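Take a sample.
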Amino acid sequence: MSRSVLVTGGNRGIGLAIARELAAAGDAVAVTYRSGEPPEGLFGVRCDVTSAADVDAAFGKAEAEHGPVEVVVSNAGMTRDTLLAMMKEETFTEVLDANLTGAYRVVKRATRNMLRMRRGRIVLISSVTALSGSAGQTNYAASKAGLIGFARSLARELGSRGITVNVVAPGFVDTDMTAVLEDSRKEEIRRNIPLGRFASPQEVARVVRFLTSDDAAYITGAVIPVDGGLGMGH
């Protein structure tokens, strides 16, 4: 049965791969995007997750097109990297607002109908950085680590209603974000990854598809690494 799905930040990179993976599995997928154009073949809704009004409007449009959202993937996010000694307070708070508070806005709106339906799948996209840390990314790492506590608390709140909440923590993925790295930096990173390569966006997307499927009905509050072993032990 086709489900109504919403993927935030679904117009490129990991988010687009997730949206296409779920659409290929038969779901009716809506994606949010902040700038540019919506991806071809998917229902796109312009939305800035730092705005509660935008989030509410995006859900309204997705619901009008596909029905009540049963699966939400909170993927939209941003980076503003710099060492803490030089980081302005607004640089710290704007990353938390987009990555962590943005997820709160999206998930809170999603649960409105999920609670009525007594079913739902929520997946938050975190990062290996959440648990291993990364110099120059104190704001990003804090926001992505916060998603884990948020998800696990929510899993306890919503489990009795048949709603699962899980986290996927990718490592380095072949996207526009990593494409700008110098070759020497890429090689340095690869040497620290046991599998010796970056992930493809599709490899992350397939894990998300599993977590939203019936096969994962008894998994909630989990953090699934897709990092080639980079964060092993955390």
